[in-house]
Design brief:
By secondary structure, this protein is of the alpha+beta class. The protein has 9 helices and 11 strands. It has 2 domains: 119 residues, no CATH class; 149 residues, Gcn5-related N-acetyltransferase (GNAT) (Aminopeptidase, 3-Layer(aba) Sandwich).
């Protein structure tokens, strides 16, 4: 991983780089699944040129997503043929396409609707470029990094939060100690040995860009756990920065038109800015 400063990006170049680290996270996540887990969950990935997709039997958008269409993958008949073929191979179930404010061409949303997709929610992308240790320090306390000794507790907590099958736990455990990954938890009251109340992970590439996710519970969606999440995020940021990370990407899953909710405030206190909207388009079946 590089430790040098990264050039500040904005607009379309920033969107491309942020979506690339997001896609890289999912590709590595799927690659890290043990073979029996991958087979049981129907995990599959597609990566050709700039087009990245994932699919699975898990009925959540994150695991059945076209990640880079229009940013930066070209939108043309070849891309749509690849999308149709990839999801048809998985049984033609629901899948989602992400479209952001900088996706090209400008009529991509209209093209998706014409092909049978429908709007299905949105997230706001938040990005921090540069280390901000002074902002993180007041919040990076009362948390711990996940180790092989605590991995089972961590994975059990996430599986329980989402009501997922136990096989997911085997997948999560395979990410502990995997190159590029760091996981952190906060226990009740920030005390050692207590019940886990918050978890989140970070994946960093070799160029110093990092993605934050696998948050449980999801702040503002599953629980009002903003303070606990902020402490876990700050802990992960400090750890990743010490290893050379210099740009960080995540999402707010309950976007606000005025960007003044507690979620935006908490991310802002850590140095992040909301930079663009990511809209989801869903298609129930091929055809």
């Amino acid at each position: 991983m590089t430790s040098s400063n990264l050039p500040l990006l904005s607009g379309y170049p920033l969107a491309v780089r942020a979506e690339r680290i997001d896609a890289a996270n999912w590709l590595d996540d799927f690659a890290g699944a043990p073979a029996p887990v991958s087979a049981a969950l129907g995990l599959a990935t597609y990566c050709e040129r700039d087009l990245v997709m994932v699919r699975s039997h898990i009925p959540f958008s994150h695991f059945n997503m076209v990640l880079t269409l229009g940013c930066p993958a070209a939108v043309d008949s070849r891309a749509f043929e690849a999308i149709d073929a990839f999801y048809s191979q998985g049984g033609g179930g629901r899948h989602w396409v992400l479209v952001n404010d900088y996706s090209q061409p400008a009529d991509l949303r209209d093209q998706l609707v014409a092909r049978g997709y429908a709007p299905d929610g949105a997230w706001d992308r938040v990005v921090l470029q540069g280390a901000a240790a002074d902002k993180w320090a007041p919040h990076a306390h009362g948390c711990e990094l996940v180790t092989p000794a605590s991995a089972q507790q961590w994975s059990d907590f996430i599986v329980h939060c989402y009501g997922m099958p136990e096989v997911i736990g085997g997948w999560l455990n395979a990410l502990v100690g995997r190159r590029g990954w760091t996981h952190a938890i906060r226990r009740e009251g920030g005390a050692a040995g207590g019940k886990i109340v918050m978890a989140r992970s970070l994946y960093c590439d070799d160029e110093g860009w990092a993605w934050l996710g696998i948050d449980a519970p999801i702040p503002g969606v599953m629980a009002p756990c903003f303070e606990d999440d902020q402490s876990v995020v700050a802990t992960l940021l400090a750890c990743a920065a010490a290893r050379g990370a210099r740009a960080f990407v995540s999402d707010i899953e309950v976007p606000s038109a005025t960007r003044d909710s507690e979620a935006y405030r908490r991310w802002g206190e850590l140095g992040f800015s909301a930079v663009y909207r990511r809209e989801l388009y869903v298609k129930s079946q091929q055809g």
